[in-house]
Amino acid sequence: MKNFNQFNLADIQALVIDMDGVLWRADTPLPGLIEFFDFLQHQAIAFVLATNNASKTPEQFLQKLAKFGVTTVRPEHILTSALATAAYLKQEYKNGAKVYVVGQEGLRQAMHHAGFTVLPDSSQPADVVVAGIDFELTYEKVKHAALLIGDGARFVGTNGDLTFPIEGGRFIPGSGSILALIEAATGVKPTTIGKPERYMFDLAMQQMGSTPARTAALGDRLETDIWGAQRAGLKTIMVLTGVDNEDSISLKGIQPDVIFEDIAELRQYWAAL
Q1: pLDDT at position 170
Q2: CA distance 201 to 171
Q3: pLDDT digits (tens, 9 = 90+) for 79-101
Q4: Mean pLDDT over all residues of the chain?
Q5: Dihedral over Cα of 165, 154, 78, 47: its sign
Q6: How far is 63 from 266, CA to CA, in rounded Å?
Q7: Beta-carbon neighbour count of residue 161 at 10 Å?
Q8: Catalytic site includes residue 134
Q9: Cis peptide bond N-terminal to 120, omega within 30
Q10: Is 151 a catalytic residue?
Q11: Which of 63, 102, 126, 171 could form a disulfide with 148 if both were Cys (CB 3.0 to 4.6 A apart)?
Q12: Residues 11, 18, 202, 257: which is the catalytic one?
């Protein structure tokens, strides 16, 4: 553990927790996962699992956790950038507004559940084009998005992550790369909702009924989890099981309040308090 700002974990009553790189890597749970959630429950520490991954539904994340032996997480604990984008758009548009989606089931479901009409193509005007990670991206999808934006639809992205982590510490193109493709074709810059934008952190705190002074963000990626939380006024906890390491701090110029090797070390230290 390295404490940079005399950060006292005893003051924290709520956590905004990233998933991949913190709780698991791809399909492998990280050490101490079950014990970590047991600790949060026993200490009555509120939490939201907040991820930029808009491809999956909350139910799919719950199934993954259950497979790893964690059964105490409920749907209201899950906040994806798809859900955050839907919540944001509900503030901006009426029920039934027409949306064209470039993305996976997680994003399409979020739009449906928010009461929007999801269009199949560009044969009729759209109010918004919403884009996120899409592992089945085609030229046709990008063409429809570009045509609709050209006709006046607003362009909104779930998040700007250029890369998406996969097994073996490797990366593939992420949501931000898809947004960049559509932006290049239209000349229109998207409004992005997920981390590091503060909207997702504010929404998580609203769901928990917490305040920045009593809330910390737990993540592995400096430019999203840590910087985004700092912009929202939260304390920040970094673990070294994901994207960034201690060398990244000086390279990126983003410093968390405290660093732990993993969630197992975090739990042990916190429990000792």
Answers
A1: 85
A2: 25
A3: 999 999 999 999 999 999 999 99
A4: 96
A5: positive
A6: 25
A7: 29
A8: no
A9: no
A10: no
A11: 126
A12: 18
Catalytic residue among 11, 20, 225, 247: 20
Residue whose pair of structure tokens reads 């089945």 in the numeric block: 136
What residues does 241 pair with on adjacent strands?
none
Tokens linked to 70: 């964690």
Q: What is the DSSP string of the chain?
A: -EESS---GGG--EEEE--BTTTEETTEEPTTHHHHHHHHHHTT-EEEEEES--SS-HHHHHHHHHHTT-----GGGEEEHHHHHHHHHHHHS-TT-EEEEES-HHHHHHHHHTT-EEESSSSS--SEEEE---TT--HHHHHHHHHHHHTT-EEEES---SEEEEGGGEEEE-HHHHHHHHHHHH--PPEE-STTSHHHHHHHHHHHT--GGGEEEEES-IIIIIHHHHHTT-EEEEESSSS--HHHHHHHT---SEEESSHHHHHHHHHH-
Write out pLDDT tens, residues 137-150.
999 999 999 999 99
Look at the pTM and tell me if it is higher than 0.70. yes
